[in-house]
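Researcher: Please translate sequence to structure tokens.
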Amino acid sequence: MPYSFSIESDEPQDVTVEILNYVTGDLLGTMRLYGVVDGEVDIAPYVRPHVSMKLVETTELAKLFVSPSSISVIVRIDGIDSEVRVFFRSEFDNSVIGPISSKAETSIVLQGEAIRITLFAKMRIDVTLIFSGRTTSTHRYDTLSHGMPVELVVQTKSVSEFEELSINVRCDAKNLFVFNYTIMQRTGAPQRVVWYNKNGGVESYLFDHAKRLSYEVKRENGCLCDEGCMSLDGRVRYRLCSGYELQTEMERVAQLMLSPIVCRESDGMCREVELDSREIAFDSKGMLRSMTLDLSEKWEGGELLW
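Model: Translation complete:
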């Protein structure tokens, strides 16, 4: 995040650099430079502690708010402000209004899972949720975006009486986007995986089958406690298998290998996992119609993972 500046004088001067959150006015950091006429400063160390890469969670029916991975910043040098810049977890095209997440080929969500969509608008986002089944229930949410990406999370834990969900998203009061989902009961051992696409939008996919492969526990030396104490690092490894899908859908899912964070979802909440292999093989015809992934996560024992 480099910023170049010039004081437009041949005489070296001492200058104060301030990094501010444009929306809240909070001071993120200050630098003092001595005897300069121009220069370049990197504000990344001052901005990074104020953003988060973690996936958004909520226990409410739905939540709509500016992404914690985004921040709007100005740099002030001796009272002169820079232009406003928006930083996000990935580069995205801020001239395109609407979803940053792509739309899955099959819009099925299991009852108890969460729906996650990353959106962008210059000013404001309005969302209407319409649950339908034996009865109909409508819920409305809105937020100011301040020119930053926004996260929408919808929980389905308490909507067992509904079978369909329509999410109507209006960006800047004129751009309408509709997402339709079928809510189904859980059968078998499916597992949803969540990740970020190349533009920073949240993506997910429901693998048809998941099975545990092994437990692995490593003893770590160097414990400075009482005699007999040992430090253990436990991992549980498992395999996810997809069904046969369209080539375009499998290509979308394959992008999870490029994501800095990959999570599995359980009861509407995400738990970070590691990819044990970042390789996906094509079939004998050079096509990608199904996928198998080996993952692992921290294991502390005692809990039922599936």
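Researcher: Any highlights?
Model: The longest strand covers residues 209-220.
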